[in-house]
Each structure stands twice: as C-alpha cells, then as structure tokens.
Amino acid sequence: MTGYDILGNIAIVKFDRKMRLSGKKKFASQLMRENKQVRTVLEKAGKFSGRLRTQKGKYIIGEKTKEALYKENGCEFRFNVDTCYFSPRLASERKEIASMIKKGESVLVMFGGVAPFAIVIGKLSQADRVVSVELGRECSKYALQNVKRNKLNDRVEIIQGDVRKVCLKMVKDKKRFDRIVMARPNLKDDFLDTAFPLVKKGTIYYYGFYDEDKLDDLRELIEKRAKEAKKRIKIIGIKKAGDIGVKKFRYRADVNVG
After folding, report:
1. Same domain, 25 and 127
2. What value does the mean pLDDT take over residues 62-87?
3. 120 belongs to a structural domain
4. Residues 55 and 93 occupy one common structural domain
5. I want to staple 166 with a disulfide (CB 3.0 to 4.6 A). Which of 110, 112, 161, 229 is the partner?
6. The CATH number of the domain where 52 resides is what?
7. What burial letters (b/e) apply to 196-205, b meaning 16+ CB within 10 Å?
8. 195-245: per-residue pLDDT in tens?
9. Which residue segment(s) compose the domain that 20 sits in?
10. Nearest-CA neighbor of 81 among 13, 24, 10, 143?
C-alpha cells in the first residue's frame, strides 16, 4: 500500500517495501502529473526519530531540493522537510484551535516547530500575543522567516530554546497565558508540569499519543499532573487529531484550568 503527504512543491511518499525503483518512479511521475504544484517526490525513509522528531527523505524524481513552500489556512510556510517536523494533516486542528481564541488573549505554543500553530492563530484569531517556543535552531530560523512572510512580526514571537528552561524563566518573570497549545511530538515526557504554572485561569490543549482503548490513561495523567501542580481543572473534551499507527492515534485533550 502506498500513502503520501503533499507539502506544497514536495510530495513525501511511503512506498510498499517490495516496490522496485522503477515502480516508485512510475508512481511518482503519475503523482506529479495529477498535482501540478509538486516539483519533487521523496520517499519516506524510516520513522521520525530523535528529540526533534525528524526523518530523512530519499530523492526519487524531480527537482533536487528538500525545501518546501507550503500553504494552508491563508498562511505560507517554508521549511526543510529533512530537518523540520511538519504535519499537513494538522491543518484543520490549527484552524480549530485558532477559532477558539478570544480577542485580546495571550497564547503560548510549546514545541512550535516552524510556527504553523502560532502563525495560523496569529492570522485567523484576534489574539493579542502569540509566543512560539522551539528547541531546534533550524526550525526556529524558518519560524522567524515564516512570521515575516506572513506579516505577523507585531503579534507572533519566536523563542529558540528548551521548553523547560524557557518556561521556567517565564514563571520566574511572572508571565501567564490564557491558552497553551502543547503540540508536543511523541516523546515520553508529557511536560504538563511545565505548562500548569503558566496558566492562572485558561485552557491547555494537550496532545498525546495513545491506543484507542487507553484513553483512561490520558485522563489519569492530566489529573495527576494537575493535582501535583495544585491546579483545579476540568477536562472538557478529548478528540482524535490524527492516526499514527494501527489503532494508535494522536488525541487532543482540552483542559480548563482555574
């Protein structure tokens, strides 16, 4: 079975392991004919790995580039598909989150990547301030470019650094946010203990990765971390935000704090 994602001018294809190179090139050629914006076809080589959740793409046909220019929700994003994690499948998630932001609110995006959440929120909502924190230097470089590209310099701030260290400094500086988007990659650390001190009264959108029969584990984790942080919370909803494997999904938990 063959599946693919289109990131503007680049298509990343997951081919069947048994498919020969000639078959891959034939499929890639057909894909380019059907999607005129695609100039490069890469093969997904391996799983996302490392703390930055990156993966390497193997060149199949087309222009030899790894830099994508992708458009969604009226926004444009440039990034390197090998060095920056980006999921086009979260486009509707980003739009939905933006629709929930109220006028004048402040928003923190953890694990911001090349700033897709922050920029869509900045473009589609009336948030007063959006701060995006990202560990990767390469992603942060593109994030700064993307903020400028979308003319949001006055509303979206990019901070390059470790989420824990950056947020600890924010707590010491008495900074607080109305909304926190925890667009975290599939890591063992849940980082909820980092988020709770930054919300006095507001909402956390927490993304977790679970088998569909393990949602009680997600609820218990959030409630445990809230108790440790001495926060009163209410989980107002949990929804699927994409599949990542057989019967395993990315879930978004909407957590009211205060």
Report:
1. no
2. 95
3. yes
4. no
5. 161
6. 3.30.300.110
7. bbbbeebbbb
8. 999 998 999 999 999 998 889 999 999 999 999 999 999 999 999 998 877
9. 3-65
10. 10
